[in-house]
Amino acid sequence: MDNLSVKWNDVLHDMENIVTAVSYDLYIDTLEPIRVDNNKLILLASTLQNKNQILKFLKEKLCNIVKLHFQNIEDIIILDPSEKDSYISQEVEEEKEKENALDPRNKLNSKYTFDTFVVGKSNQFVYAAARSVAENPGKKYNPLFIYGGVGLGKTHLLHAIGNYAIKHNKKINVLYVTSEQFTNDYIQALKADKKENANKAFRDKYREVDILMIDDIQFIANKTSTQEEFFHTFNDLYQRDKQIIISSDKHPRNIETLEERLKSRFTGGLIQDIQRPDFETRLAILQKKVVQENYNVDEEVLSFLAENIDTNIRELEGSLNNVILLASLMGKDRATINEAKETLKDIQYTSEIKVTADKIIDDCCEYYSVNKQDLLGKKKTKNIVVPRQVCMYLITELLDIPLMGIGELFGGRDHTTVMYARNKIADDIKKSKDMEHDIKELMSIIKK
Ligand code: ADP
Ligand code: MG
Q: Which atom of ligand 1 is least distant from the CA of 288?
């Protein structure tokens, strides 16, 4: 077997574990790897319909797995049979285009707007900052630095700022690039035969803008000369009150190889983080998506997904897509809890969560900021008693330990105490929205 087939087999193996059997058989197993081209893996789907289904529902998962096994692959391209032959000539043309023009201006995704962005506790501040920058570019927070984990909405917000600014001022010049694109443009300018022209084209592109957005800046952190060029671009724009917006996976101070002078520039503006969404926000995001995409799905599915998937929003959306896909594969016109459970089986299979009493106790301590000794001890103050009862409740719900055994964990308490706690919290959940919220949050933290 050649190298491509070996790696592709690994991809198949992993995919088999994370998608439903039907999706795997229908869509993944029927793909044929063609070759690697320009950091892209080219795959042939057996029909146009399959291609479209994969693009819609499986591409992201597949792409992630491909990246795991193939070094330097950034994307996958899926062809349908009719495209196979014409693809080769088209590729050559595209390459030429790239060489000729430094400035095929990056399109903003019209789906990523403020309207489609759900605001909750986890992102309200960053949302406010982004809006304010979109309304008054260059005037208020400059630069605006947004950081947070993957799939939490950074790119969405950047595009939203751009879309908003353009909508309200047709003449405004907005440039959105990833830090990789910035680096590539810079390297091309360095390599070009006609250096002066190339440099001018580079400067024109990056300095003749009113808003410059660089997504995922962490990727230029270990590239010295690109950082140098970015520093100059930054200063030039900043001095002319042009808005700069940057995103990253970390706070600037924690990007180790980022030059000090850039860190200090970033710190001069507003730095905002974006956190994991809580249950209500996750649910609202799913509800919005259902309306947007016109999905036909039981409400119960949405709360089930929101409860179980809290890692990031991309996953959350992906799981909803999978549920819809599965329902359609089964010939149903409405997705129900059954498909949702089936889909999540896959996910749980991959994450291998191990819930133990210790983990539940630790998570409760952290959630309520109480120390473990107190939680397991005899104190009777309210700020300890409630977390303790919640903790007992969760253990009874999530684990198969006899009540007496649970009593033992809490300093040899009687099993009736545990029973009382369990009933009390179960009751409180029905009566109090706050308690319901806490339990849902804790459940998802514990399952992580
Ligand atoms: P990041 O750039 O932080 O990795 P993205 O901006 O690409 O994350 O977001 C991942 C997906 O989640 C996108 O489809 C995006 O539209 C969606 N998303 C993220 N945050 C929200 C939100 N608050 N409301 C609605 N959709 C969101
Ligand atoms: Mg992003």
A: 25
Place of tokens 């600037």: 252
CA neighbours within 13 Å on the CB side: how many for 117? 28
Q: Domains in the chain and their CATH numbers?
A: 3-101 (3.30.300.180), 124-273 (3.40.50.300), 282-351 (1.10.8.60), 357-446 (1.10.1750.10)
- State how far the Cα of 148 lies from the Cα of 429, in Å rounded to an integer: 31
String of b and e for 287-297 (b: at least 16 CB within 10 Å)? bebbeeeebeb
Site to substitute for ligand 1 among 116, 131, 152, 214, most atoms within 8 A of C-beta: 152
Q: What is the pLDDT of residues 129-158, one digit of tens each?
A: 999 999 999 998 999 999 999 899 999 999
Helices (H), 294-336: 299-308, 313-329
Ligand 1 atom 21: residue of nearest CA = 153
pLDDT tens per residue, range 252-307: 999 888 889 999 999 999 999 999 999 999 999 999 999 988 999 999 999 999 99
pTM to 2 decimal places: 0.64
Q: How many CA atoms lie within 13 A of 3 on its CB side?
A: 5
Q: How far apart are CA 438 and CA 442, in angstroms?
A: 6
